[in-house]
Design brief:
This protein is mainly alpha-helical and 61 residues long. The protein has one helix at 10-60. The chain is built from one helix and no strands.
Length: 61
Amino acid sequence: MNFANMPSSHFLFIPAVLLIGVVIGWVLGGRAARDAFAAELRKREAKAARDRERAAGRDAH
């Protein structure tokens, strides 16, 4: 491979593509983490509601 024949635009294009990939990964990863956190909160709230219903059912007997 002859690096002398490589255009100078490579030195700008390759890092730009890498940077765009990092930004896209950051955005998609942040969205996935936020969705996972919200799902975990919903799961905990549903479990707490079930536990409250069970406790109320035991108190009624």
